[in-house]
Amino acid sequence: MSEVPRLTHVREDGTAQMVDVSAKAVTARAASAAGRVLLAPAAVAALRDGTVPKGDALAVARIAGIQAAKRTPDLVPLAHPVAVHAVTVDLAVADDGVDITAQVRTADRTGIEMEALTCVSVAALALVDMIKAVDKHARITDIRVTAKSGGRSGDWSES
Amino acid sequence: MSEVPRLTHVREDGTAQMVDVSAKAVTARAASAAGRVLLAPAAVAALRDGTVPKGDALAVARIAGIQAAKRTPDLVPLAHPVAVHAVTVDLAVADDGVDITAQVRTADRTGIEMEALTCVSVAALALVDMIKAVDKHARITDIRVTAKSGGRSGDWSES
Amino acid sequence: MSEVPRLTHVREDGTAQMVDVSAKAVTARAASAAGRVLLAPAAVAALRDGTVPKGDALAVARIAGIQAAKRTPDLVPLAHPVAVHAVTVDLAVADDGVDITAQVRTADRTGIEMEALTCVSVAALALVDMIKAVDKHARITDIRVTAKSGGRSGDWSES
Amino acid sequence: MSEVPRLTHVREDGTAQMVDVSAKAVTARAASAAGRVLLAPAAVAALRDGTVPKGDALAVARIAGIQAAKRTPDLVPLAHPVAVHAVTVDLAVADDGVDITAQVRTADRTGIEMEALTCVSVAALALVDMIKAVDKHARITDIRVTAKSGGRSGDWSES
Amino acid sequence: MSEVPRLTHVREDGTAQMVDVSAKAVTARAASAAGRVLLAPAAVAALRDGTVPKGDALAVARIAGIQAAKRTPDLVPLAHPVAVHAVTVDLAVADDGVDITAQVRTADRTGIEMEALTCVSVAALALVDMIKAVDKHARITDIRVTAKSGGRSGDWSES
Amino acid sequence: MSEVPRLTHVREDGTAQMVDVSAKAVTARAASAAGRVLLAPAAVAALRDGTVPKGDALAVARIAGIQAAKRTPDLVPLAHPVAVHAVTVDLAVADDGVDITAQVRTADRTGIEMEALTCVSVAALALVDMIKAVDKHARITDIRVTAKSGGRSGDWSES
Question: Domain containing B58: what range?
Answer without folding.
Answer: 41-148
